[in-house]
Amino acid sequence: MAPRAVWKGYLKVSEIICPVALHTAASTSERIAFHTLNRATGNRIRRQFVDEASGKPVEADDQIKGYEIAPGDYVEIDPEEIAAAQPDSDKTLAVEAFVRLDDVDNVYFDRPYYLTPGDRAALEAFVLIRDGMRGSGAAAIARAVLFRKMRSVLIRPDAEGLVATTLSFDYAIRPAREAFDPIPKLKIEGEMLQLAKHIIDTKRGTFEPAAFQDRYEAALAELVKAKLEGRTFVAPQPRKAAKVVDLMAALRESAGVAKPAAKVAKPAAKSDSTKPVTARSGKPARGKAAVPHRKAS
């Protein structure tokens, strides 16, 4: 049974208009949720808005929005004024352009939805749009008022339907340079880079969402189950954080490559001295044999 539609309207491509329905693709309804209780009575606690100066509760009819222009100084705006500023919805996903999917940076991706025909009469037009996009390898950029806000939406074919992903506006995305500029320029070459590529190649696979388990949700479920059964909950043991002491050694270990064997020094010529000598300098060794010098790769 198809999930209940969260929005119904029309998909408009030039002069082609197709009734469509939008369904939530990602949901948090399966997550474990807790209520806040009064520890003494076991009753649920109800939130209240209170005046921060007097501490007295403020009812909904007495509440108003405010935009802070200076500390403690606000421009007051009525809820009706905010509602009036919201764009009118004509219930239409109007396609403005077709683009290559790879041209859209997925950092702009917001929330995914499934887009389906709005009714049986819309099936032919829906399939025409879907197969036309699939045949041309195109994705559509559309605009619509969804959930009282103007939104840009990326639409692409998927199996028998379409996937519509709302996009964040440019002003909402922080420039990457803010995070990346402090990273110093460093170039890795030689054996290190080859080992890294080898490790990546040996771990190639396909994305299987079911293979990734939410360990936190699983632990919460076990905690609730233990409480219901009256037994002690045993918390999962945290993973030990590994310390990388030698990056090259870690790479070799990950790649299953043995460390190159050290070159064995030839026996030194006989000497009148009874003390052992090092292979490189001929000077008397102190305690342990010197480590052979390894050439940089």
From TrEMBL:
GO BP: any one term: DNA recombination
Annotated Basic residues bias: 283-297
SMART domains, alphabetized: Ku78
A Pfam family that the UniProt record links to this protein: Ku
Protein's UniProt keywords contain DNA repair: yes
Transmembrane portions of the chain: none
Annotated Low complexity bias: 261-270
Region named Disordered: 261-297
Endpoints of the signal sequence: none
Ku domain segment(s): 55-185
Similarity comment: Belongs to the prokaryotic Ku family.
Known function: With LigD forms a non-homologous end joining (NHEJ) DNA repair enzyme, which repairs dsDNA breaks with reduced fidelity. Binds linear dsDNA with 5'- and 3'- overhangs but not closed circular dsDNA nor ssDNA. Recruits and stimulates the ligase activity of LigD.
Protein name: Non-homologous end joining protein Ku
Lineage, broadest ranks: Bacteria, Pseudomonadati, Pseudomonadota, Alphaproteobacteria, Hyphomicrobiales
